[in-house]
Input
Amino acid sequence: MPRITVDVDGTTYTDEVQPRTLLVQYLREQLGKVGTVVGCDTSNCGACTVHLDGQSVKSCSVLAVQADGHEVTTVEALSQEGRLHPLQRAFHDNHALQCGFCTPGMIMQALDLLAENPEPDDEQIREGLEGNLCRCTGYQNIVRAVRDASEQMRPGAGPAMEHSGETPAPRASSEQADARVTGGQ
Amino acid sequence: MTATPVSPSEPELGRARKRKEDARLVTGRTRWTDNMSPPGTVHLAVLRSPVAHARISSIDTSEARRMSGVHAVVTGADIAQRQGSLPCAWPVTEDMKAPDAPSMAVDSVNFAGEAVAMVAARSAAEARDALDAIDVDYEDLDVVLDIESAARDGSPLVHEELGTNRNATWTFDSVEAGTGGDVEQALRDAEVRVDRTFRQQRLIPAFMEPRSVLVDPTGEQYTVWSATQVPHILRTMIAMTLGTPEHKVRVIAPDVGGGFGGKLQVTPEEMLTFLMAEQLGRPVKWTESRSETMISGHHGRDQVQRLSLAARADGTVTGLKVDLLADMGAYLRLVSPGVPILGALMFNSIYKFDAYRFTCTNVFTNKTPTDAYRGAGRPEATFAIERMMDELAAELDMDPMEVRRRNWISHEEFPFDTIAGLTYDSGNYEAATDRAMEMFGYQQLRDEQVQRRQRGDTVQLGIGISTFTEMCGLAPSRVLGSLSYGAGGWEHSQVRVLPTGKVEVVTGTSPHGQSHVTAWSQIVSDRLGVPFEDIEVLHGDTQSSPRGLDTYGSRSLAVGGIAAVQASDKVVDKAGKIAAHMLECSEQDLDFAEGRFAVRGTDKGVGITDVALAAFTAHDLPEGVEPNLDAEASYDPENFSFPHGTHLCAAEVDTETGGVRIRSYVCVDDVGSVVNPLIVEGQVHGGLAQGIAQALYEEAIHDEDGTLTTATFADYLVPSTMDLPEFRTDRTETEATSNPLGVKGVGEAGTIASTPAVVNAVVDAIRHYGVTDVRMPCSPQRVWRALSEARSSSATEAESGGGLGSSDSDGGFATGGDR
Output
C-alpha cells in the first residue's frame, strides 16, 4: 500500500493507505477527524469540503494519496484557544445552521470564498456556495452569516475590533493569503 | 401562593436567543451515528435488488464468504424465521390489506432497492467489495408502476397473496359525520362547478445526513444508535418486531442530521444491523450511501387528486368532493396508509363549505414505499384546495384573493367547527393577509401584470396566493384513536433541580435541527426563574429520557413544550412547600417570581436554589415531603393547533424558454406565541425551500422497469443557493387557546403553504394563453410545453375556456401532463 505523509490541522501523519481510499475516508476512518462528514457519493453536496493547501476541495473527490505532502485544514482547526473563528461566530449569530450536518463544509467553502473575494455581495456569496447543499435553512441565513463574517474579517475593520470581546482574530484571511503564495493545489 | 411567574425583567419567551446547539456543530465536535465506532466494530453493507419485481430463484454467497475480512454473509432465507415483519402502526381501516414486510426479501423482491443480502466485514470497503461477489438470480415478474392502472381490476398484482393492489379505501362524508350536507346535491345545485385533477409528484426527503445504525450487543442491554427522529418508537418496535424484550434494548438518537419525516421510520436496516450484532456478538455499524438513501429510504407525496368544487356565481363555495389515489409503494411502512388520510381533515382549509366528501384509495406499486415527508398529507390537501380557489376565481373572472375573503372563516367566528369535524380554536386570516398584501405590493404587481400582458412581453408576470392553515401538535390521543392510529399523542417531560440549583430538563421529543435545547431552556427558565445558561436539556436516549413519542408533525413545542411547562409548575409547587417551611409561613402567603419565593407583604424570601439545597440536605423538611424538587408530567393535548398564514409569490415566466424565476416571495405566518423568533424564522425559511422545491425542481422518477432514475443529487434537484429567492417574512400572533403558552407549531408551515403559491403564480402568468395547469415540478420544459399546447389548441378552437364551469377535458392533467 502507498505510504503518505500529510499535515492535517497542524499534526503530521504518516500512514499506509489503499490507493482507492478517498481523502474524506482517510480523515474520518484512519485519523478520527470526524468533524468532516460525507453527504453524498457524487460530489454534489459539499458536506465534506476541506482545504488542501488553503484551497477548498470536496474531500470525497480527492484520493488520500493525492494529499501526500500537502496540508489539509478541516473545520476542527478553525477555532483557537476556545474562541470561534469569525465565520463560525457568524453562523452562530445569524442562525445559519439547524441540523448542522452541512455546516463544516459550508464554513470551509465560505472561507475559501472570502479569501477570493473579501467583500462579496449577496449574489456573489450565493454563487460561491452553489456547490454546497443545505436542506434545513433555505440558505438565507447562511448568506447573511457570510456577509456578516466578511464585515468582521474585512482588513479595514481593524484589528482592535477583531480581537476584542468575543470576536476572535481574523486568522483565516492571512492564512489564506499565505497559502496562495505558497502555491495552493 | 401564585404559580404564575411575574417577571419585571425581560422574559425568555419571545427572545431571539442564539442557539446553545451551535458551539459543537460549527466546530466539528459532533456525534453523528457514523462518527462512532466502539472497539471491535464491524461494518455492514446491504445488497439491494436492481429489479422492481421478481422471484428470487437463487442466491450464491459462497465466494463472498471467503473474501478477506468478511465475518458473515446473511440472506433473507437465513433470517426468515427471526426477522419478523416491519411494523405499520396505522391500519386505517379494519379490512386494510397489508402484505408481510420482511426487513430482507426472502422469496421475492417488490421494489428496486429492497435488501436481499448483507455482509459484515472488518471495514466498510471490504463489506462492499463482498457484495459484488454475491450472485443472485431473479425471475422477473410483471412490474406495476402506474397508480391509476394499478388500482383497476385486472391489473398485474404487486402482492399476489392479497388479490388486489388496493390497500384500503377511506372515506369521510359530511352527512355521515353530521357536520354538513350532501356534496352530490351541492354539485347538482351548483351555479358554478369546477373539476380538476392534480398530480402530487413523488418526492424524496433528502435529509443531509445519510442514515446510519450502530448496534452494540456487548452490554446488558443492546445499545442502538440510529439517525432517527423516533428513538422511543424504535425501541418499542424493535421489541415488537424481533421479540427481544424491550427492557433489553436502549436506543440513542445522537446528533441527527435532518429528518423532515424521512427519519420517522422503523427501517429494515435498523432490524438487520440489530440481527447481525446479535449473531456476531460484537458492535455492528451500517452507514448508507446517498444512492441507498434515495432508493430505499421512504419517499413522500405521490397522489392523484380529483376535486370537484361547487360554488355560487358570486364566488361563495358550497361543496367540495375529493377523490384521491395514493401510492403506498411496495410495502406499508410505519404510518404510510395514514399519511394521505391526514389530508382528509384539511382539504376544506380555512373555507366554509356546506358539504364535503373525501375518499382516498391507497394503492400498492413496485416502487419504494412512501411515508411521511414534511407536512405529510397536509401539503397535498393545501395544494389542491389553493389551486381550486384560483381556478374558481378564474372561472368567475374574480380576483383570487377576493374569492378567498368571501369564503374564509372570519376572526369573529372562532372557535369554529369545520365541515371535516375539527374545531379551529383561533385565527385571524384577515390580519395576516392584510399584512402580506401590504409587504408584497399586491396592487402594483397586478398593474405590472396587466402592462406586461398588454405589451405582449416575452416575460410574463404571475401572482400566486396561498392562504393556508394546517393542524399541528399531533395530536389528542382520542383523535388518534378514532383514526385507528397505533399510539397516543401525549408527550413527557421531567425537570430535575440539582443540589447546586442547576436544572436538567428531560424531554421525550427528539430534535434533529429544531433547536429544542435552546427553546426548552427558555421555557423552563421563565417558569423556574433559573438562568437560561443554568439549564441543560436531555433528549434522544431511552435511558435518560425513558418516556416520549419523539418529533414529527410539528408536535414538539405544542405538546412536548407544554409537558415541560407542566413539569416545571410541579417543581414550583413542590419547592413552595419547602420554602414555606423554611420561611415559617403558610404556602398561601408566598409569591413566586424570578426564581424567588417571597412572603407577601414582607421582605422575607428564599431563592429556589436555596430551596433545592435544603431539599438535597434534607435536614429539616416538612412532614411527608421527599428530599428533591424533581417533577415529571405527561401531557395529552386537548386539540390540535392550527397555524395559518398568507403566502404571496410573484413569478416571472419566460414564454420563450419556459423558465420560471421567483421575483418576490412574501409570507406572513401566524404560529401563535413565539418562544424564539430566530428559530421560528429559520423553520419558515427551510419550509419554504422545500415547498418551493416541490413546485419547481424535485421529482422522484422511475423508468418503465421501475428503476429510480433520480437516485443521486446530480439527478434529484435539491435546490442550491442559486435556486431560491430571498424570502420576506413576517408574523401575526393569534394565540392558540388550547395550551398555556399559546403556541401552535411551525415546522411544516412553510412547506405546506408555499407549493401552491408558486404554482398559482406560474399558472397565473400564462393563464391568458389558455393554460389552466402545469404539472409539478414546473420545469422549463413543462411550462414551455403547457404554453405550446395551449397556443395550438386555442388556434384550432374558436374560443378557449369561457362560460361558467369547466373540467379538464380528459379527466387527466389539463396540460403539461408529461414528465
About this structure: Confidence is low (pLDDT under 50) at residues 1-7, 798-804, 809-819 of chain B. The first strand of chain B starts at residue 42 and ends at 48. Residues 556-583 of chain B form the longest helix (28 residues).
